[in-house]
Amino acid sequence: MEKLKIAGGYPLKGTVRISGAKNSAVALIPATILADSPVTIEGLPDISDVEILKGLLEEIGGTVQFTNNDMTVDPSAMISMPLPNGKVKKLRASYYLMGAMLGRFKKAVIGLPGGCHLGPRPIDQHIKGFEALGAKVTNEQGAIYLRADELVGARIYLDVVSVGATINIMLAAVRAKGRTVIENAAKEPEIIDVATLLTNMGAKIKGAGTDVIRIEGVDELHGCRHTIIPDRIEAGTYLILGAAVGEGILIDNIIPQHLESLIAKLREMGVPIETKDDQAFVGKASAFKPVDVKTLVYPGFPTDLQQPLTSLLTKAEGTSMVTDTIYSARFKHIDELRRMNANIKVEGRSAIISGPVKLQGAKVKASDLRAGAALVIAGLIAEGVTEITGVDHIDRGYSHLVEKLNGLGATIWRESLTKEEIDQMKNA
Ligand code: EPU
Q1: Confidence band (pLDDT; 50, 70, 90) for 116?
Q2: Ligand 1, atom 7: nearest CA belongs to which residue?
Q3: To which H or E segment does residue 352 belong?
Q4: Pairing of β 225-227 and β 39-42
Q5: Rounded distance between C-alpha atoms, residue 184 and residue 243, angstroms
Q6: Ligand 1 pocket test: which of 162, 182, 303, 307 has the largest number of ligand atoms within 8 Å of its C-beta?
Q7: What's phi and psi for 278, nearest 5 deg?
Q8: pTM for this structure?
Q9: Residue 353 phi/psi, 5° resolution?
Q10: What CA–CA distance (Å, rounded) separates 85 from 143?
């Protein structure tokens, strides 16, 4: 086990290249199960979620090669092996194995997913979709059992706009008989990316990226090559840290349209940002204005960036409010930021940040992926050394974080945890 150490308070400069999107990757990899010949996905990020999914595909009989960020999956020998425990518990997105295995084999046994603890994260809408397509779904001792004689297209209205349910129902429906219509679908770019891969595999999908997706089921899907979209949340994290400690940072390999809500907010704070083709340049702000932010489904402000933004808001001159309408308890980073001298209180679903304060280096713990990103940004801002434990959360979603930050001139490194620190973590 490792911790991150950051000697903060120094300006960053230079160019950073954004990796492939984690939240696409974790759906694209299970989607390969639906094909009957090899699928290659280009540009995957080097993150632990990708490694875990690679291992899961191998467990069910897939042959997987992963070199230089390109993964080729031969799914022809896969079987519907039950996966009630083990690796599936390590990531939330293992729920995509349900849709993909149900779609191909008409049966699956998958342990209930793990992932970040952000408050209740039910999967009732996924299950509602599978049942509408004709599957019998039961929960037996923490594993979901799915079985169907055949899957038949249906009209499914999502009661909650859900990225995961939208993608999972697409996965289950592409090889079902007849037409499926998903209403009140989520519109995130990752959904379009998955629909593009499936279409390249021979699926018939219309409307991905709108709130009504229409799917005509096909009997078979074939192999193809697909290039993943860039990670808008990783890009957003670098935009925010560029605003916080940058003296001119160029963020390369992005789709600026995917970041409009964040860029608008940063500009409102007084951060100079220019976008061009697949790049954004963040300049140095003379001062930061406070802002109010409410997270919403795409194209609204992403919940995944509210925690990183909170660290920047400690520098704003006045009171800012961050409200998370998606997750009720995505505020575990706040106590840690307080240890670093931040002046923040949480009221219900809102964090109220009073600034400006001078953050001080401290020993802090990342409780989830984006909390980790928030603490890295805070550590870069803070005077002195910050030590961050819970690095495994950060490694789930940020490809080559230390190398990328050092490339911008940061002083950040990994160290092994001492035995006492490991004991403390186990007892916490
Ligand atoms: N919800 C339900 N029932 C469901 C599904 C969702 O009530 O069946 C609720 C959730 O509890 C939540 C809201 O609907 O309040 C939205 O959840 P959604 O299903 O859209 O989230 P998700 O698909 O599980 C993905 C990302 C998250 C990101 C959210 C929201 C992946 C693997 N994860 O989660 O990413 O926060 O969409 O945009 O794609 C992250 O990257 O750090 C992360 C947590």
Answers
A1: low
A2: 122
A3: strand 350-355
A4: parallel
A5: 35
A6: 162
A7: -110, 35
A8: 0.97
A9: -110, 125
A10: 8
